[in-house]
Amino acid sequence: MASSKPKQAKTKKIVWLHYMALMIAVLLLGSGSSTPAAAQEDSREAAIEKWARHFEPSAVNLEERKAELRWFAQAAEPFRGRSIKSVAEDINTHFWERDVLAQAFEEITGITVEHEIVGEGTVVERLVEQQSTGRRIYDIYVNDADLVGTHLRSQAVVNLSDYMAGEGKPYTNPYLDLNDFLNLEFGQDYDGNQLQLPDQQFANLYWFRYDWFTRPDIQAAFKAEYGYDLGVPINWVAYEDIAAFFTSYPIDGRKVYGHLDYGRKSPSLGWRFTDAWLSIAGVGDVGLPNGLPVDEWGIRVKERVPVGASVERGGETNGVAAVYALEKYIDWMKAYAPTEAIHMRWDEAGPAAARGDIAQVIFQYTTWMSDEKFHKLGSPVVGADGKPLWRLAPTPHGRYWDEGMKVGYQDAGSWTIPQNVKGPRRAMAWLWAQFSVSKTVELKKFLAGGTPVRVSTVWSDHLTENKVQWGGLIEFYRSADRKKWTGTGPNVPHYPTLSAMWWPNIARAIEGELTPQQAMDTIARSMDEAMARMQLTKYSPQLGPVQTAEYWYAQPGAPKPERPRPQPQTIPYDELLRQWELSSETGQR
Amino acid sequence: MKIRFGIGQKILMVVVGLLVLFAVGLAVSVGTTSFNNLTGVKQAELERMSQILAEQVADLERDAVHVTRSFEDNEQIARDITLITNLGPYYADPGSYFAEDFTGAGAIIDSPDQIYTFQAYLTLIREFRSALLFNDLSSISFYMISPYSVVPNVEPTLALQINKELIYVNRFINKGNTSGLIHQLPFNQFRPPTSDYFDISTAYSAPAEKFYSDNNFVQILSTIEAKTFPIDLIGLTMSRSQIIIKNGIPVIQTWHPVRLPLPHFETWEEENVVVGLAVVEKELDIPVMDTFKRQLGLDVGIVQGDQLLVNSLQFSPDNAGPVMGEDGIIDVNNGSFYFARQPVAFEQNPNTGLEAVIFSPVSELTRLTQALRSQIIWVSVVAIAAISVAIYMAIQYLVNRPLGALTNSARLISAGNLSQRVAVESQDEAGLLGATFNIMADQLRELIDSLESKVAARTKRLEIVASLGERLNAILHLEELLDEVVNQIKDSFGYYHAHIYLLNEDRTRLVVAAGTGPAGAAMKEKGHHIMLDAPTSLVARSARTGHSVNVSNVREAADWLPNLLLPDTYSEMAVPIVLPGENYVVGVLDVQSDKIAGLDETDASLLRTLASQVAVAINNARLFDQAETALAEAHSAQSRYTEQVWQKARVLSQAGEFRFVRPGFAAIPEEEMINLKQQTLTQAGLVVHESGANATDQTGQNVGPAVTDIGPVITAPVTLHQKSIGVVQLFPVESDQIWPDDDLAIVEAVVDELAQTAENLRLFEETRQRASFESTVGEISGLIRQAPTLDALAKSTAEALGKVLGVSSSLVRIGFSPEQESDIPGPGRPQNGKHS
Questions:
Q1: Pick among B170, B201, B262, B268 to test the A interface (most A CBs inside 10 A)
Q2: Model-level pTM greater than 0.80?
């Protein structure tokens, strides 16, 4: 076209002007004169000083914090005055990020962050919309690592490993220290590429009333009835016994419950299952962070390609272990939990154990442990000395669980940048993500939200001194066992689509509309049908051949045939704690 | 035979006549003037219709402008235009590209961005297709420009165009490069993708060209068109339209600068900036002309200069040439048409160079005139017939029917059916007449009923008066009579009070003689009276004048004095009681009512009649009293005579007393006998004196003391002319004897016979003595008659009398002097003038 050359010349001219402006700014910064730029520099340095002191306690010292913050200020220099938008789910950690970190980041870097807090469902919905339409809604998402299987197949998110090595290198924090992250693997694809950077993580653990479990009279009563010691249950049989015991054993004349869960028909009901419940029951194969070739959703992969979820295709979503998991969930909620539990959502049940009449919770998201109800003096679960009366311990496992399998869930909200966020926005988003997980701020963020992502945080002197306040959480994250608590793995090819199939059918099972077997059959069939339609960029599902269930049950590993009821096992909490401490001292750090 | 017409028929004939005259006049005048006027009217109408047509063409332009503006308001369209702008060749979101990524024409637009753009194209095609069909547009296009002139001086470049035959999209490959790959798809082959066609992985799963080919878009090598709108966009802020000629057909072309928020490439601040041009075209083709023709009812066309570009006349513009005549007539297709033309003006472009034309065939006017005459005639005939029928029906309904009903009712009433009424069904004159007739009938009936009741009442009164007269005639005692009169008057006629005053003997006062109720009795007892000369008394006035006096409301009379005994009196009437034939007032009948004007002339007439009867009755009673008095005096004289003669007789016949004593029984003591005899002489009839008890007569009444130890003694006076002339006494044998009634009857009969026989004997004696007297007188008379002179007469008489009568001396004188005569009273001269 005749006019293309003049246009190109004009474009070049604009770019040149941009660079000129940047150079002038750099020169002015370097001059140290009392120019506006110098004043700006002074202001920025003051902000670094201010926030470096603010982020105390920290895993790093003041100078290290200043150095790190100063790097952020310099790296963000080209973007001063710009703004980006991020989004995260509605837990304490992210509220703290919005209210404290975003302000600190703006004062230090000059980049304004609009950190929007919405429900987890909305986070995923908007991410899907952005990836589907190319319309930029946010520049970066705190997206659970449960979607890593989706991201590695869609190729629609920025490969952070590549970015850090390439275009993003100037904007990658030299103090980032990826090895310091507790579970970096949650955000990695099969090849170890980092697709998501952990921002916060919380596990589901076993929660119980340590004070009741250690009272001699209660211990004696339990042993008299069940013939073994009351302690942290190692398997579901023991948990069931303890649940039945407390539900029928008033403590100090007051009715208590041996179990707590939630059952209201809502998307969060599905999380309860897809996060880890089936793995705790024993669905899937041995392997960490997720079982291979069959994971805890019951999805079988073959050479990274999902081939089916139903037993007939080698999956285990409707296997006997999965049905057993659903049956126990329903039976226990109806038999041992308060009657209102069946009408609760996850956010209602989360802090409910703090009301004082719950003896144990098999599936307690630890993010709720930061709720003041569990710490405030005067709470029924806090002692007169201000220390918690509760403790956290490993989740007991079902009869199909084998050693080497994951035994719980960790929600790893992870910074995720859609592919269509490019150039400066991508760089600013990456700076903001690194800032929010930096060693400078991470311990402070843990104290606010109870969701650690760094080893340096959980091993910090501050937490060593105050670990008792966290009821075993610190010990858990310091132990090697934490590796058994993982997120949804890479086998799940399309988390938004497949997860939507769980909660409606589980709700129908709770309401009695479907038997547990029918519910799991429906979920397995739906997932197979959905995977058959998927056309993902990499490792797109290809359903495998159909075989009889007997064929698959006869094969080693998942799907597993029916197993007999095992003997109940418990362990004294203090013994468990010693084991965790032992494992942490033997180089698991 | 003489034909008689009713009112309705007469009216009908007059109206029909007038209508015929009017219709004939109308036909003549219209027929004459219509042809002259119609031509002018037609021209004016065509002018007006051409203005409407020009306005309708302008409306099409306004609709097109509205469509282009709606792109900014439609959230989906705005979002997709923003996306294709961001991902297109001429703009870079300053946050999404480093400057070095946007240099030169060589920078490739990422394949995912091309796919996202294609997605947006598909959505825009879906939206534009709806707008195209809904607004019957010819085409909708979107042209890319460079917002903020990031790529300076760039011409608008077609990104998307859709018309009713083909869809074009431009797949841009390079940043800063206007040359893209034009792809096309037949309009009717477009199928919007399913909702899950684009997923999270889609944009990264395949090259962009795969999505174009999968959706049947085929790349073409030629350009689509040369731009026909101004490309200088500086200062372009609002929609503009123009007329272009495509293939000889006029087209309304509207272009609108689409403004959407985009970050400024330097400040990153979002501003509303022109991101492209939405171009809408609307062909003014034959179907559009046919649509106008249907709406306006006239043939239409579009003219540029003298060139008829398009029309609804089935006339090919190819043969046109400069055919628009100066005389307002165009000849096409073997016909002539009147026409009018009006320039088409758009809001932002008043001079489009086009004119809207309206056609009307000349032959239509001729036919119209002829048809008009025929129509007037036929319409007149039909109208006159219809009007005649309507008037006839109206007269029948509105006039004849109510008059007939009125006549019939009058006839029935005259035949005596007073209950007959006319049905009033309207408020018009006929209804008013019927209502008035009914009122008259009501009043007639009331009058007759009133007369009958008055006659009946009067008859009844007369009957009462007659009955009262009969009763009064039967009463001979005045006092009783007057009481009866007032009570009957009050009770029979329902008056409040009635009383009768009678003049006293010296005729100075009117004294209450009778009155009704306690008031009347009290007034009578008190001797209530009114002076005859009392000036204010209506009673006195009536007595003085001899006429009735009626006061309808006595309380309004200035000098009326209330009577405490008659507190409820309101009206009063006094009627004189005049002796018939003598015009002599004897009293006043006074009647009072407790109602104002309670007494009228009827009452006066009635009361006068009653007063006359009362007067007669009073007269009768007085005559009766006089007769009774005379009779009593006669009886008294006879009784006295009887007593005298029998006293004389009893003296003479003392020895006539006889006593019988049954042998063996002792005689009754003398003093007892004398006592009983004295008692018997004073008693009226036979009496039985019981022993030791008082004597009783035959009715059982006590008449005297008992006779001691004798037993029941019968004593019976011998009575003649109510005077006892003797006594019969019978003593019992036994003291306890009982006298049977038969014995008593025998005694009475014997005593009566005894009296009569005694009287006969006395009369015989008297007659014998008179015969002796007469003999003596005769004898003397014989002597007297023999005297020859007066003196002899006197002497004879004196001697005879002296001799016969045995007197010592006698004097007889015959003749007196005048002095002696005046001292002697005359016999039978009345003592005064009063009649008695």
A1: B201
A2: no
